[in-house]
Amino acid sequence: MNAVIRRVLIVGGLVTLVLTGPPDGSLRAAKADEVEYTFGSPVKDGEHTYDWYRKTHADAAAKRYGVAPDKVGDGMDTWHWWCGVDNPGFWREMAKLTSKKANVLTARIDLLRMLHTVPRSERWEKIGLINDPDCVPADKPDQYGLRIDRMKDGALTWDPDVFGFSSGVVGLQLFKNKNFDAQKWSIDKYLDDASSVEPPFLVGMACTVCHTAFNPNRPPKNPAEPKWENLDSHIGSQYFREGMLFGYDMPKDTFAWQYLYHQQPGTSETTRFPSDFINGPILINSIYRLNERLKLGHTERITAEQKLMLQSINKHVGLPENEGIGGTDAEPTYRAPRVLSTGADSMGLVVAATRVYVNEGSGYKDWIPTWALNPYDLKGCQQRGFKQREFDIIGKIRKDPNSPWMRTEARMPNMALYLSTHDGFPLKDAVEAEGKGGKNGKDYLQTDAGVLHKGKIAFADHCARCHSSKRPDNLPENAEARKKAWREFVLRDDFLTNNYLSDDERYPNSELGTNIGRSLTPNWDAGGGYGQMSSLGFKLNQASAEQVFDQDQDGKPIPLYNPLTGKHDVKFSAKKLYYRTPTLVSVWATAPYLHNNSVGLYNGDPSLVGRIVGYEDAMTKLLGPEKRLGAGSIKVTTDDTTLPDVFPMLKATLPEFADLPDLEVDLLRVPKGTPINLLMHVPPTAIKAVLQAYVDGILQGEPRSKFAELRTKNHATGHQKLMEKLLDVSVCPDFIEDRGHTYGRELSDDDKRALIEYVKHF
């Protein structure tokens, strides 16, 4: 019911978090048994493996882009299998922290347990994970009692000490655990309490767990058993249900399950661990036409310390020392593309890409202490007001040449080269999966020249300003002349050629009108967890404060929606907020839309017809905001749910809670229909005020000694006061998910239809 509890749901039971010692971070022990990996059935003659997938792409990239295929292949290996050196240790620590013994809740952040307990045939349906074609399901437990997919004999073509063995899920790798002791091992003991015994394998996470999905031009017959030719590593998985990775076996009557279940498919909540006390999942980006995107680099102010760091990075990865650096010694600048959906990641591709590995757990011994809610130092977090600390790459982490950061940083140039060799998926080339009907991609394309001309005009008038990396030369200042120039430009035959279909620019939320949850994060502020990785220019742009508005049906600003009153009466001010323009390359294949995947139907169907149905619905709602869910898009609990009984621990651990009367968790059940983000957007510093509001509602002026006598009688009043206080202290009282981005709403129905048809050609 409060922010501490909220993060406990994900980080583990607070009692154990306080009492356990710091993680040792070691994957080695002085004495350990050698772990053996058991392969499955052999690769069949003519069967495509990752090695085929790798060679096919690298050779095609060399032919098209004139790049070295061996470097493309090396970058591809990094993207697919690299786990940032030590992130298997991070996921082991999370498993221990959320084990049965440690956890007062029921969430389990245990990837090994998931791989063992969720059969290969069910992972796609339950969690949206992509099964590795190079693996087969275990037909029986291995010598350790584990039922984990096994790599086909002959499929392993890399060094497993570096990249691990495939777990059966693309992007989750198995590493032999050097701390394993066969004499102590028991699968039953592990499943009962993951902290009680060291497992034979650790699980690491690579980028492709989020970014690999189905090739829209060659969808699989069976999503649970794709072949390599059905996969693509850069489209971003709009099917991944990240919340269910941790909540797949949780009781559905818990609030924790509601929080995890309602995370939109195809999003990642990258602030789940370095908590910002905002529930702000963000779409998993598609990566297209990186070379064109790099041409859009923006020059931003940086600090003198950042300049020195970037010079060091350039030397480390083999670039000229001052590559991208300009300005003066007093006011240096750096030219770089913007990576994150908010445009905060503004320090270049090497920094941006290496930072992603931190979010996957790399360098966790330095990362965990920066969390606003560090499970190993709760009192220290309280003393600093539950604020983040900077992940210090300038003063500490990059000074160790063998740190996980530096070893990962060295791999980034080849990985960036690999990512630069991806284009989109022309719908005309799409072939439907077997058994899904006879229509292929070209059958969905409008060929009527008049309709397409009308769609191009609509795009020029309402979309091209932001959604084109190419611009007319010498755009005039006069509005009508600018419109004419854009129309002529979009109508050119080569308009879509090498067009990134985004200007990669940040636009203020005050113009976009979209939900602010993600853009409000303090991660990239000065002093925030990743503050050293955002430019000074980005921070200066956010310096001023402004009121956050929703829009009425005429597009006029109105206060935010209040789910307690049903009115637009919430006034809220924040720093200036931004979102970056996403690319529209192959947008026909990646509905739903907006930064939180909130606009449009999610049907979980990767077939060609499934994607087209999703595209049609999402585009119709994007251009017709009156057809969206509006207040119906607010995430609410679908059942009465329970909260963890951590009140005794709070009183025992944190002195400020000692003067509260005894609280029974059963009285604070969360009723069906409660907005989830009422609870998820409360900072720890407000916990006592929230609980005190409940107590005051129970007592209604009576002395504290009567609390036990009055708590049942006055519970409804107490609960109402608690809900009002939750809204009052919320750090992000923005609940409607699918609001904003109403460009093109004034178009006629015919023009909207024409625009939808034209965009299918992207």
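Second entry:
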Amino acid sequence: MLRVPTFTPMIDELEEFYRTLDPQSAELGQSLEAMLAEHGEESAFSLKVRQMRILAQESDVHVFRHFPFWFQFSAGRGRFIWGGLGCCPGGEFLHRHLGRPYWQAYLEALEPDRQAGFIQSGANPVGLDHHALDYDGILRCGLLGLREKALACREHGAPDTLPFYDAAIAGLDILMALSCRFAGEAERMLETETDPAVRENLVWIADTAGRVPAHPPVTFREALASVLFCRECVGTLEGIGISTYGQLDRMLYPYYKADLEAGRITEAAAKDLLKAMLYYTAVRFDEDHGYHETSTTIILGGCDPDGNPVYNDVTRLILEAEWEIRVICVKFDARVSSAHPEEYLRQLCQVQLARLPVLVYMNDDTHIAARVKYGQDVRDARGYVAGGCHEIVLGGTEVCTRADTWICMPGLLLHTLKKQEYDTFAQLYAEAVADVKAFHERVASLKNAAEAHWSTFNPLPLYSTMVADCLEKGLDVTAGGARYSSTALSMVGAATFIDSLYAVKVLCYDEGKRTLPELTALLESDYAGEQSLRQYIINRIPHHGSGNAEMDRFSGQLLRDLSGVSGQTNGRGGRYYPAFYPHNMFRYLGYRTGATPDGRMAGWALSRGASPSEFVTGVSPTDMIRSAAAVDFTDFTDSFALEITLPRLPENEDSMTVLLGILGSFLEAGGSTLQLNLLDPELLTEAQKHPEQHRDLLVRVCGYSASFVQLDKGHQDEIIAREIRMQ
């Protein structure tokens, strides 16, 4: 990141605080243990309220002298923790004490599949991360408005809903009281503060934190403070990861416009507030000295609930702020469509050409249609955001538990190949798809067995007030209160699976070069003594994403069939959706997967998202996009990313034309999600040898960006290989 001189005092203050942060985990843990010992017979809702009260009242609150917002309280959350079970003690306490029978059974049941390399998953069968709040409702009603709604719903609620309503109302009271603690701390600091600029900041916080977000914000700064406070504090109190700031440009524009017209803000001042928010994430997660996952997304563009494209002055200011300070640990998810103005697309490409690989491009035309196809209301679908990297969740209306379970598709295929002989390829094809479906159903069944009890061991009543329909139903999000209660089990290795199945078709059924038993024996030997056959597979048999018409038809049909392996009912009464979201698991699962029929050697990485296999060379962006057009990505409700690597283009109009052309072709082909890397293999290799000279070399990894020299050698080698294969 680049330090803007005027922000140096703020950055220094943030760095000093987070470098020495004491999350008070031990002290708070003792208080929670004492609470459980005294009140352990109470309901999970009552215990959750007691937990939130302890965290909010016994934690130290901290107001920064130079930072224009408030949210930092200890509550057990360490420097590099964004939520989930790691958000100690809030995230794990009730889960560990009350949920043990459920997560332990889940862990034990899946252990053989982990050992076999079929799956990568944690011990947690429920989703404590990648969540989104109804920021629109918070900004429109304030927390007091949500409280009034909860009280009104409680009056008509059935007796069995009262524990939920009481916990939800108490949670809102605790959150508002916590905000008032920041106002009081700012007032205390004013008693001794003499710096005029600092006093002005503290006066604003002292005045505002007692009103907002209890009441709806009026100004741009108040609205941004509300979003930041609720995202940070709700996540910490509930012990979940609320990864996204939401569709900031759409939400903040009315406040910005009103402030400008009233003379309350300038363009420069608004941009500085946005920069402060970006700097906070960069400093907290120590961006300058290493990579730490932040799970922080900002959504840009897209459309409003009526379908009107969003691109406004706040969109422009956010992108300018990023371009000027070069923060890489915040993920910018740019929703794009055929209806967006070229000015918006050009500004996105300008950031890309500035060697800032922080953008992911999400195709509104495809994603919204996919959600509608799966039964979600179009107005809700238009509010989709990115849950953690670029996985999709509908902001404020959906709770999707995901990014905790990854299924190794090629590993399952190897199992299918060894099960029996198949007289025809059609029999093998059907069995391969059936085996994936059976495995998906097995994992779903195990998750459901635990998730059905989620509300009894770790409910989320405060979060539930900020998700549509929970208050109307009188149900916590953990019990299916959200309008949409979905789950996604991510399949990994699409191209590896597709290419392998197609190679078996050619080798064993079309050309008869090997019998299936002979081929499986060859794979178990890692192609020992058969490199000529392996080269034949790599160079003569078509591959997914290479633009071959026959292969494109095969890929399109197989992916359509694989989209049908989900659809099960989850433990909250919702639905399982198909997903191919790999994150880093394409590498980790690849390490544990034997040689595959597509020519991949044992231990090599699997393919990423919708992209061709990692070792396939000579594939152009045109080939990839042409092949993408053969897939109906509306069959997949989640982000199915195509990753394209280009040379390190200069910042000029010719390069702009290239990127705009690729983006336009991607939209026209009906792609799902696009990530771009602009790389120079010689520069990357040089950076490996002399990292101290290339600390500003930034790369897109998979769903996130990082300084190349801060990655481990395995990641570095894989990224260098991406560029080499494009030569």
